[in-house]
Specification:
The protein is of the alpha+beta class. It has a single domain (31-148), classed as Arc Repressor Mutant, subunit A. It has six helices and three strands. The protein has a three-stranded antiparallel beta sheet. The longest helix is centred in the first third of the chain and has 26 residues, at 3-28. The chain starts with a helix and ends with a helix. 13% of the residues are buried.
Amino acid sequence: MSAATHRRLATASWESLLRSQVAVMRELHKEPSFKKVGSREYDVLFTLSQCPTGWVRLNELNDNVLLTQPSISRMVDRLEARGLIQRKTAEDDRRGVLIGLTEAGAALQKEVGRAHVHNILDVMETALSDEEMRTLLELTSKLRESVAQR
Protein backbone atom coordinates (compact mmCIF):
# COMPACT_ATOMS: atom_id res chain seq x y z
CA MET A 1 0.00 0.00 0.00
CA SER A 2 1.40 3.39 -0.93
CA ALA A 3 1.93 6.08 1.69
CA ALA A 4 -0.79 8.23 0.11
CA THR A 5 -3.28 5.36 0.14
CA HIS A 6 -2.35 4.59 3.75
CA ARG A 7 -2.95 8.25 4.74
CA ARG A 8 -6.34 8.28 2.99
CA LEU A 9 -7.33 5.03 4.70
CA ALA A 10 -6.27 6.31 8.14
CA THR A 11 -8.09 9.60 7.63
CA ALA A 12 -11.24 7.95 6.27
CA SER A 13 -11.26 5.45 9.17
CA TRP A 14 -10.93 8.22 11.74
CA GLU A 15 -13.65 10.29 10.05
CA SER A 16 -15.98 7.28 9.90
CA LEU A 17 -15.41 6.58 13.61
CA LEU A 18 -16.09 10.20 14.51
CA ARG A 19 -19.19 10.51 12.32
CA SER A 20 -20.56 7.22 13.65
CA GLN A 21 -20.08 8.40 17.23
CA VAL A 22 -21.85 11.68 16.50
CA ALA A 23 -24.75 9.94 14.72
CA VAL A 24 -25.20 7.42 17.55
CA MET A 25 -25.03 10.12 20.24
CA ARG A 26 -27.61 12.25 18.43
CA GLU A 27 -29.94 9.26 18.29
CA LEU A 28 -29.39 8.41 21.95
CA HIS A 29 -30.00 12.00 23.06
CA LYS A 30 -33.50 11.86 21.65
CA GLU A 31 -34.40 9.78 24.71
CA PRO A 32 -36.92 11.72 26.84
CA SER A 33 -35.04 10.94 30.07
CA PHE A 34 -32.21 13.22 28.89
CA LYS A 35 -34.62 16.12 29.39
CA LYS A 36 -34.24 15.54 33.15
CA VAL A 37 -30.46 15.64 32.99
CA GLY A 38 -28.18 16.42 30.06
CA SER A 39 -25.85 13.80 28.66
CA ARG A 40 -22.75 15.48 30.11
CA GLU A 41 -24.41 15.77 33.49
CA TYR A 42 -25.42 12.12 33.21
CA ASP A 43 -21.78 11.26 32.43
CA VAL A 44 -20.77 12.83 35.75
CA LEU A 45 -23.55 11.02 37.66
CA PHE A 46 -22.66 7.71 35.99
CA THR A 47 -18.96 8.14 36.73
CA LEU A 48 -19.73 8.84 40.38
CA SER A 49 -22.02 5.81 40.53
CA GLN A 50 -19.09 3.60 39.46
CA CYS A 51 -16.74 4.74 42.25
CA PRO A 52 -16.13 1.87 44.69
CA THR A 53 -16.15 4.16 47.74
CA GLY A 54 -18.91 6.40 46.40
CA TRP A 55 -16.58 9.38 46.57
CA VAL A 56 -14.01 10.85 44.20
CA ARG A 57 -11.73 13.86 44.09
CA LEU A 58 -12.58 16.51 41.51
CA ASN A 59 -9.37 15.89 39.55
CA GLU A 60 -10.12 12.14 39.44
CA LEU A 61 -13.62 12.89 38.19
CA ASN A 62 -12.11 15.12 35.53
CA ASP A 63 -9.92 12.22 34.36
CA ASN A 64 -13.01 10.12 33.63
CA VAL A 65 -15.44 12.52 31.96
CA LEU A 66 -15.23 14.32 28.64
CA LEU A 67 -15.04 17.88 29.96
CA THR A 68 -12.33 20.45 30.69
CA GLN A 69 -11.45 21.30 34.31
CA PRO A 70 -13.32 24.64 34.35
CA SER A 71 -16.39 23.02 32.77
CA ILE A 72 -16.42 20.15 35.25
CA SER A 73 -16.12 22.58 38.17
CA ARG A 74 -19.13 24.57 36.96
CA MET A 75 -21.10 21.40 36.32
CA VAL A 76 -20.35 20.11 39.81
CA ASP A 77 -21.66 23.42 41.18
CA ARG A 78 -24.89 23.07 39.15
CA LEU A 79 -25.41 19.43 40.11
CA GLU A 80 -24.81 20.27 43.76
CA ALA A 81 -27.33 23.14 43.55
CA ARG A 82 -29.88 20.65 42.16
CA GLY A 83 -29.23 18.31 45.10
CA LEU A 84 -27.81 15.53 42.91
CA ILE A 85 -24.26 15.49 44.28
CA GLN A 86 -22.61 16.51 47.53
CA ARG A 87 -19.15 17.48 48.69
CA LYS A 88 -17.20 16.56 51.78
CA THR A 89 -13.70 17.19 53.05
CA ALA A 90 -11.19 14.43 52.40
CA GLU A 91 -10.15 12.77 55.65
CA ASP A 92 -6.55 12.26 54.50
CA ASP A 93 -6.13 15.85 53.28
CA ARG A 94 -8.25 18.59 54.84
CA ARG A 95 -7.70 20.78 51.75
CA GLY A 96 -9.04 18.06 49.47
CA VAL A 97 -12.70 17.86 48.51
CA LEU A 98 -14.52 14.67 47.65
CA ILE A 99 -17.64 14.51 45.51
CA GLY A 100 -20.37 11.87 45.72
CA LEU A 101 -23.95 11.23 44.70
CA THR A 102 -26.87 12.14 46.92
CA GLU A 103 -29.79 9.71 47.16
CA ALA A 104 -31.63 11.85 44.60
CA GLY A 105 -28.60 11.81 42.30
CA ALA A 106 -28.26 8.03 42.55
CA ALA A 107 -31.97 7.56 41.84
CA LEU A 108 -31.86 9.86 38.81
CA GLN A 109 -28.73 8.16 37.49
CA LYS A 110 -30.43 4.76 37.72
CA GLU A 111 -33.62 6.01 36.07
CA VAL A 112 -31.83 7.67 33.16
CA GLY A 113 -29.33 4.81 32.96
CA ARG A 114 -32.03 2.17 32.47
CA ALA A 115 -33.57 4.12 29.58
CA HIS A 116 -30.12 4.83 28.16
CA VAL A 117 -29.14 1.14 28.17
CA HIS A 118 -32.42 0.25 26.45
CA ASN A 119 -31.70 2.80 23.71
CA ILE A 120 -28.09 1.67 23.35
CA LEU A 121 -29.28 -1.90 22.85
CA ASP A 122 -31.80 -0.76 20.25
CA VAL A 123 -29.21 1.22 18.28
CA MET A 124 -26.45 -1.39 18.48
CA GLU A 125 -28.58 -4.49 17.86
CA THR A 126 -30.22 -2.86 14.86
CA ALA A 127 -26.86 -2.14 13.23
CA LEU A 128 -24.45 -4.85 14.35
CA SER A 129 -24.33 -8.58 15.04
CA ASP A 130 -22.81 -9.88 18.29
CA GLU A 131 -19.61 -10.74 16.42
CA GLU A 132 -19.43 -7.24 14.92
CA MET A 133 -19.96 -5.68 18.37
CA ARG A 134 -17.10 -7.78 19.76
CA THR A 135 -14.87 -6.70 16.86
CA LEU A 136 -15.84 -3.05 17.38
CA LEU A 137 -15.06 -3.34 21.09
CA GLU A 138 -11.66 -4.90 20.38
CA LEU A 139 -10.73 -2.27 17.80
CA THR A 140 -11.83 0.75 19.81
CA SER A 141 -10.12 -0.63 22.93
CA LYS A 142 -6.92 -1.14 20.95
CA LEU A 143 -7.09 2.41 19.64
CA ARG A 144 -7.69 3.91 23.12
CA GLU A 145 -4.83 1.89 24.62
CA SER A 146 -2.46 2.98 21.86
CA VAL A 147 -3.34 6.64 22.37
CA ALA A 148 -2.99 6.30 26.16
CA GLN A 149 0.57 4.99 25.74
CA ARG A 150 1.72 7.94 23.62
